[in-house]
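Morning F.,

Quick status update on the modeling queue. The single chain you submitted on Monday has been processed. Sequence for confirmation:
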Amino acid sequence: MALRGLIKRRAFMAALHSWRGLKACFEHEEAFRVEVWLSVILLPLAFVVADNGIELVLLCGSVLLVLIVELLNSAVEAAIDRISLEHHALSGRAKDLGSAAVLVAMLFVLLTWLAILLM
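Structure tokens below.
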């Protein structure tokens, strides 16, 4: 009994922290807000465009991947800014690498959607 209650509490707290993270990213990161609004359009559209389950997973997964990478990029940026706001080459490199990861994820969306729409 006690273990079940502990698991429920931990799951609740994990969900609460996740919700806070999503809310903070939406409030503080313009890029994330734009990507969320694009997701609101693309995710329902994926159900119309996809001919089968694999296409649906690829279309939705590619869009969700951008949100995941943007969340991680925002976390890296926040941690770096917490350490110091002064310019440092390694801080700049870390932020650039996070930004590059978002770009690659966006290119994956473009490639996935074009491949499915054009083939």
